Amino acid sequence: MHRRSPTTLDLRALLGAVALSVLPMQPALAQQPPAPPTDTIKTAASHSPTEQQVIDLSKTKWDWMADKKVDSLATLFDDRAMFTHMGGTWGKVQELATIKSGGIWYKKASIHAVDVRVFGDTAIVLEDMDLEAVVGARTVTNAFMVTEVYTKQAGTWRLAQLTFSHLLRPVKAGVGSN
Known about the structure:
This protein is α+β, with helices and mostly antiparallel strands. It is 30% helix and 39% strand.
């Protein structure tokens, strides 16, 4: 009996059949996307005097925002400061006008953890918080990681940037304090 050797055409057909048989399995072999991170920042047991000064200033800022003290905020906010919200980014003048008009009323900031890093005359504050706010006529509470950047100018800390990053975690209703 004569044995024939496989031809290129036969090999292609075989490879094609193998490829087609594997295709239905592709979804099963695909990796699932990783779960979103759930870690958050932790509040340190102690802070340097400079770190504590910036943390206290940040807390005072939230009180001023809740009380709509735009004159105090105008002094704290650098003239070139930027504010990044879920709905957009704008400067000092628009942020103060929004607070004064009640377009956004920062009613209550429940801070669950705070971390501050000082780099010379720059301080970066991260706050894991639930923010109760009145936006228009609706009261909403959102979980945020807020990033604040302060710069020390002529011996005084000024807010240069405030960014709200929406967190995937549920609101921790009734947990934490101001």
